[in-house]
Structures are given as structure tokens and as C-alpha cells.
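Hey,

Quick one before I head out. I ran the complex with iron/sulfur cluster overnight. Inputs first:
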Amino acid sequence: MFMNPIVEKLIAWYERNKRRLPWRRTNDPYKIWVSEVILQQTRVNQGINYYYRFLEAFPDVEALAHAEENDVLRIWQGLGYYSRARNMHLAAKTIVNNFGGKFPSDYKNISALKGIGDYTAGAIASFAFGMPYTAVDGNVKRVLSRLFGIYDQIDTSVGEKKIKEVAKELLPRRNPGTFNQALIEFGAMWCTPRNPKCGTCPLQQHCLAFAESSIEKLPAKKPRKKPRDRYLNYLVIHHSDHHHFYLRKRSDAADIWKNLYDFPLIESERPLSPEELVNTQDWQKLIGENYYSLNSRTKKKTHQLSHQTLHAYFWEVNIKEVLKPDQAAGIVKDKKSNIHQYPFPRLIDAFLQENFTEYGKNNK
Ligand code: SF4
């Protein structure tokens, strides 16, 4: 059968150069799904540990569907983009409820699952079931924009459409999954964002960007917006018994870290002095005069997210009386010995590791 020379060379390159990764040794759609979701926004080296941890905790769809959301988030802790974990959890419930726990094997049902977009659906359909669907991720966009000299911005609908059309034209009917994996791997290992290995590239003679000396310009992307600064004043509340702590479950679906835990929070437009902090409405509502000391030597941490720079100030507050239920709406009070049971974003995890012996002890 005739095979496009680009496809042929790419697959030959893949067979010689591919990394031996655990999710490449299986065609179990559940395991492939887990690996693909973890690897979105995560490097392979870091992702491997999470992949093993996740499968150990939730070895199949049933186990994931029946897990508590807190436990799913705990396993995900540190990976970021927590909606990925919440969506997987919801999708697992759908698979159990609608498909008797068996992963759907047709594209329409796969792509209808919560959190599964075009790329992940194509990856599962082609890797696990050998179906002829493309899987266009950032690596593939980079490779194809360079190979075919596509100058449209790849993060716009026009650019994305062009790349997908090219990927579809190249996709072989035989072993489409291997082709997709080869393209992704080639982008990750050879046609990298910086310093691609053009000198030893098997596709060099087909590459328009190489011929036109425009590799540095491709892929074209929309200019990045400057991340927004946020100032988070966390109240690390101590009561005289010293055995309890106060946390807050984050419930705003429009904000970061939904359903993870942090401390009672007062957000401000800029850094605050202790006097300014105690004069805020939020302080008055939550603490008022119910404190006898506020540590003004706060611990500060900066945390970078893709669209936000978080400046977090941890204020140690010693309160006189335990918070009343109306003061503490949405706030959880628990024993310090239970603190390791909650899912935390990485920023809070790092603070706890450094400052709460109980957390460090139980969270290895
Ligand atoms: Fe990528 Fe360079 Fe190969 Fe072109 S020649 S496909 S830019 S590695």
C-alpha cells in the first residue's frame, strides 16, 4: 500500500526513537485516558509518578467512579488544573451509569464524556481502539505548522482548523494510533519549541520552515496577556487549645482550585499592613475583636499560574474564642492530626510542609 513519505519516515523514526513509557504498553482505554489527562500541561517525567499513583488508588473506572472527590483531588495534588481531576471523576460516574462500567468504544460517546475534548477523544479512539481519528496537541501543532509552513496563529480557530485538516490528510488508515503517537513524540523529542534537531531530522527535506529559515517564527501564537496580580491574605487561625485548625473549602466554580482547601481568606488589591487588614470588612465579619494577637511578620509566598500571579501572605492570628458558626460559614474546623486528609493546592501544601509538623509527618 502506498504511504505518504512523511508518514513513512515519521513512523520509522518513531520505531527507532520512542521512549518506553508505561501507557504505550497497553491498549486499555482507561489507562490511556488517565495518562492523556495527566500529560496535559504536565511533563512526562513528572507525569509518570502521578500515573502510577493514580492507577494504584483507582485501578479501573469503577474504582474511580466510587471514590470520594476529596480522595481524587488528594491524588492529583500538586499537578494543578484540578478541573481535569474533577471532570475525570464525573466522566467515570457516567461510564458506570450509562455504559455498565465499560469504556465506550465509539468516538461520539467518548467525546461526549466530561472533560474529553477533541485531542483526548482522538488519542483514546486511535491508541486504544485503532480508529482513524487525529490527535492534535501542542506538539503536533508545532510540527505541522513548521513542516507545512502554516503561519496562522495556532491558538485561533483559523489556525487550528488548518492544522487539523493537514493532520487528517496525513492520517494513514492502517495504524492511525501509531502515526498519532509518532507525531506527538517527534514534537516532544526532535521538533522541540527551542533548538529543534533539524540537522538530524528525517523530515528535513520536506520541511518548509527549514527551507524558508522560519523555524523560529513557527508556530505563530497570539501575544500572551500579562498575568493578573492577586493578593491573598490567608488567616492561619490558632485557638488556645492548639489542637485545631481552620480551613476553607473553595467552592467558586469560576475561580481557581474549586473544591480544594485553603485557609480563611481576605483578598485585597495590594499588600496590606496589619492595621489595614483588621479594618477590612471581611476581617470584621470573621474575626472582629475576637483576637489577642496578629503576627505582623507574615510569611509570604509567590505562586505563578498561567494567567495569575498569586502573592500569598500567611497571617498568624490567635483568637480568644472559637469562631461562632455564623462567623465561620464555609469554614471547616478540624483536629490538626487530620490535616493530611484534605486536598490542597500546591501553594498551601508548600506552606503546610514548612510550618505544620503534623502535616509533614503524615504526608510523606
Ligand atoms: Fe522540525 Fe527542523 Fe525537522 Fe523542520 S527540519 S520538522 S523544524 S526538526
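The chain has a mean pLDDT of 92.

Talk tomorrow,
K.
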